[in-house]
Amino acid sequence: MTIRAAIYCRISQDRGGAGLGIARQEEDCRKLCERKGWEVVEVYTDNDVSAYSGAPRPAWQEMIRDVRDGQVNAVVCWHVDRLTRSPRELEDVIDLADRHGLELGTVSGEIDLATPTGRMIARMLGAAARHEAEHKAERQRRQRRQAAEAGKIAGGGKRPFGYEDDRITVRESEAEIIREGARRVLASESLASICRDWQKRGITTTAGIPWKPSALRRMLASARISGRREHTPRSSWETTRPLLGVIVADALWPGIISHEESDRLRALLSDPERRRRVEGSTRRSYLLSGILRCAKPREDGTPCGFGMVGRPRSGVPRYVCPNTPGTDACAGTATNAERTDAHVRDMILTALDSPAVRERLQRPDEEGSGLYEEIRADEEELEELARDFGSRKISRKEWMIARQSVEERLERNRAKLSKTSKATVLLDFVGTYEDMQERWEKLNDSQRRAIVTSVVRSIEVGPANPRKRWDPDRFIFDWIA
User: Fold this and answer.
1) Is the pLDDT of residue 254 over 80?
2) Which of 151, 157, 293, 478 has the CB geometry, 3.0–4.6 Å to 251, for a possible disulfide?
3) Residue 319: left (phi > 0), alpha (psi -120 to 50), or beta?
4) What CATH homologous superfamily does 172-279 map to?
5) Backbone angles phi, psi at 319, to 5 degrees
6) Which pLDDT score is estimated for 61?
């Protein structure tokens, strides 16, 4: 019987892309096949793919399919750990030996899967490989953490936006873009709106592709752009890197934005309520959707209170209390969208053209300053708890109990800080009434909405007066003090 052998080669890291490790493995495997008299029918190569991480290995999966289809009846590799570092996958190989008579050849030594002793040796080698992989992963985690605490540069990947190839020198043309993005997000403009604007202006990432909201969110939430180093440990079951890490040191590179701005951005962009609102909505075509509230009285005299949405009738844009089944909406209030937008704009600009507003904007942000300190203290406490757990000073149960209260407090303070950020939109907008009118016309709906929500909580819309074609008295503003 002719032995049709498949050579499997794998290397975990080939950052230079030379593939030399793969070539050496294949050469040694071919010599082994020649000594055994096996015919090499295919070489399966997974370059720069870890068997420990659980990442998909296309060549491995293709080879297993070919074994099951009978095209291959022997597998040759340099060592068992090149084949797999997962005991579960090794058992799959042993199962194939049972079902299909698969033979295994390794350059590092003979392993006969047809015998109990050979299987035991394969399992022992597999367990040893797994043990070494876990130790290597632990060493790498400690090295990354030590590098973070020293404020050193994280290696690998493309250069970060805003910095040169050395990852330290600020590239001023991109830094100004980052500052602009930070200002607009702190002003409550949506990430999608900023990305659309940047795409029109030809602003791209370091990879030369247009910005997407997810990439912009991660960049602006990174502590790197404020000249700080964060450590973002990831548990083995997590498939994506968390948005926020723990800030552990000042970095070796200069910041592009201030620590305070960065803390506000991190609080705003990690706010779970904001994420739910963005992910559960479509692009807005009506400025005041959700801000307007139906005030038509119910039978018990209480106002409806349901958020009004944009719905045209006969081609005329309107805001209506929606007739949505399964909700408490009364569906009894509507108002012309164009005239309503203009009325709200005039009321907002009139309110902003006042000494009281200017005085409020000039007050020191004492609450925000206190929140910065509390957030930083809680982040440091979480890091200290992680150290104590890692050095076995506290048990896992003690760590989880202590961590829960700190994380709850941290989440509350980040939510508070994100709310204090809304007033920043007014700093660059407030001026004379005429100036604000001119600026308003140049803003998009997302920017205008940021102005409105920084001044009012909601606007109630009462029933229409049948005697008046337009009744501004229907609108009751709940102003933010």
Assistant:
1) yes
2) 151
3) beta
4) Putative Large Serine Recombinase; Chain B, Domain 2 (3.90.1750.20)
5) -105, 130
6) 86
Query: Which pLDDT tens digit goes with each residue over 350-387?
Result: 988 888 776 666 554 555 556 667 777 787 787 788 77
Distance, CA of 92 to CA of 315 (rounded, Å): 64
Q: Please, how many CA atoms are within 13 Å of residue 107, restricted to the half-sphere of its CB?
A: 19
What angle do the packed helices 445-453 and 191-200 form, to 10 degrees? 150
Sequence-distant (6+) residues with CB within 8 A of 415 are 267, 271, 273
Residues 6+ away with beta carbon under 8 Å from 256: 162, 170, 175, 178, 179, 225, 226, 227
- pLDDT digit string (tens) for 277-331? 444 444 446 889 889 999 999 888 899 999 999 988 888 999 999 988 878 889 8
The domains of the chain are located at 4-139, 172-279, 292-353+431-479
Residue 117's pLDDT is 60
Q: How many helices (H) and strands (E) does the chain have?
A: 17, 12
Say whether 456 sits in a helix, a strand or coil.
Answer: strand
Mean pLDDT of the 236-251 span: 68
Which residues are bridge partners to 4 per DSSP? 39
d(CA 394, CA 399): 6
Region of residue 257 (left: phi > 0; alpha: psi -120 to 50; beta: else): beta
Give the global pTM. 0.49
Sign, CA torsion 338/343/346/349: negative
CATH of domain 4-139: 3.40.50.1390
